Amino acid sequence: MRFFDRTEEIASLRKIREMARDNAQFTVVTGRRRIGKTALVWKAYEDAPLLYFFVTRKAERDLCEDYRLEIENKLGIPTIGRAEHFAEIFEFLMKLSSERPLTLFIDEFQEFFRVNKSIYSDMQRIWDIYSSKAHVNLIVCGSIYSMMTKIFKDRKEPLYNRQTRFMTVRPFTPTVLKEILAEYHPGYMAEDLLALYSFTGGIAKYVQLLIDAGATTKEKMLDQIVKADSIFLGEGKAILIEEFGKDYGVYFSILSAIARGKNSRSEIERVVGREIGGYLTKLENEYEVIAKKQPLFEKSSTKNVRYTIEDNFFTFWFRFIYKYSYMLEIENYESVKTIINRDYETFSGLMLERYFRRVLIGHQTYTRIGGWWDRKGENEIDIVAEDELNNAATFFEVKRKARNINLDMLKQKADTFLRATGEFKGYTLSYKGLSMDDM
Fold first, then answer.
1. Rounded-to-integer distance, Cα 327 and Cα 290, Å
2. What is the DSSP letter of 161?
3. TM segments (predicted)?
């Protein structure tokens, strides 16, 4: 699959490189694993050489030797000779950049913690000494989101706030997914687009794996995901165990419960069988795997709370792959696919609602977008979108099939919303249905 999208990010990275000719720049590129951070940086700087340091878990002196060879090959100059510590390499480059601008890209930056955690304090010291005269464009990225956030946003860490830019790479939008399918499967159906969004969530690597395999229909995607040797099967565990560490079992139980529709804390605790307040807080604030949702205009910060897994792939993985891993262990792939197809309408209905929220966000015509439900669970509105600038609001009902949309019922729910919240007085109100026909 060719490179798609990221035009704003590429433009930003190139502007940062130009700024580095006058003042040293330190950019942190974050985002979940497989989102395409490394590919983005390489694409942005494909027009000029850059120094690429990949951090692996091996002896610091061996890493330094790799970096020394990279400097000599890319810059064509002798270095300081064999270095024992990364600080020597970094100081050499900071000094050199005062004479000639250079771009240094350090990938898997969080792995320095396992190589030698003092590297971060060494970098802080060297950066503080030389950055005022340097012309370096320093970019670092890492695949363990929580560690990267801690390195730069925890006040106790040496590199706290040393970055000049914190860039987060997001999943492909529905518009980009449509562009990709249109190129590789011009006759695609709405079901194929919804499946690509539901299974991958727009994560670049997952989209690439499916497209490169020719899996451009819902059926082919499912065949590619659920089969022997599929990387998708172990992907959730591979990513999240690194994030969660030894407590991953509890976190997995929580996420599995949420993926099955247990959205309140009490429901999740009944499934997990223990108190989970601290775990939920970490999942939301530290790992950013879940989100705490409340109805629009809910006045209490603790009532009527629902927890959701924001990442579509993790939602799918915990709902089907993790839950039925015992079937996969005995290679019963067909039974797992049968279960996914059996439950697909319900699962994809939730994904369709997310899809349209992303579309509405992309339109940039609304100032507030959310959902609403009452505390008894008797009335629920899929999407409420407010336009404060024009005193207008739209209530949306989302269904897979247009014939199942009931606008009269939507208006009744909206009336309940208006009475309960007291909002939108004097607003122009409208009511719309969204289905797969509108994708």
1. 27
2. T
3. none
Distance, in Å, from the CA atom of 38 to the CA atom of 141, rounded to the nearest integer, reads 8
DSSP characters over 131-157: TTT--EEEEEE-S-HHHHHHHHH-TTS
Q: Which amino acid is at 436?
A: M
Q: What integer pLDDT is reported at residue 397 of this predicted model? A: 98
- Residue 104 CA to residue 126 CA, distance in Å, equals 15
Q: Tell me which residue of 176, 197, 290 sits closest to 243, measured CA to CA.
A: 290
3-state secondary structure 15-53: HHHHHCCCCCEEEEEECCCCCCHHHHHHHHCCCCCCEEE
Q: What pLDDT was estimated at residue 229? A: 92
Residue 15 CB coordination number (10 Å): 12
Nearest alpha carbon to residue 93 among 46, 130, 125, 56: 130
Give the contacts of 113 (CB within 8 A, at least 6 positions apart): 120, 147, 151
Whole-number pLDDT of residue 247: 83
Q: What's the Rg (C-alpha) of the chain?
A: 24
Instruction: Compute the distance between CA of residue 102 and CA of residue 48 in angstroms, rounded to an integer.
Output: 10
Mean pLDDT, 10 residues at a time, over the chain (439 residues)? 96 97 96 94 94 96 95 85 91 95 96 95 97 97 87 92 92 97 97 98 97 98 96 93 87 94 94 92 89 93 91 96 96 97 96 97 95 90 97 98 97 96 96 97
Closest to 214 in 3D by CA, of 1, 44, 433: 1
245 vs 298: CA distance, rounded Å: 35
Altogether, the residues listed in the chain come to a count of 439
Terminal alpha carbon distance of the chain: 23
What pLDDT is attached to residue 312? Answer: 96
Task: Look at residue 288 in the predicted model and tell me its pLDDT.
Answer: 86
Residue 334's identity, in one-letter code, is: E
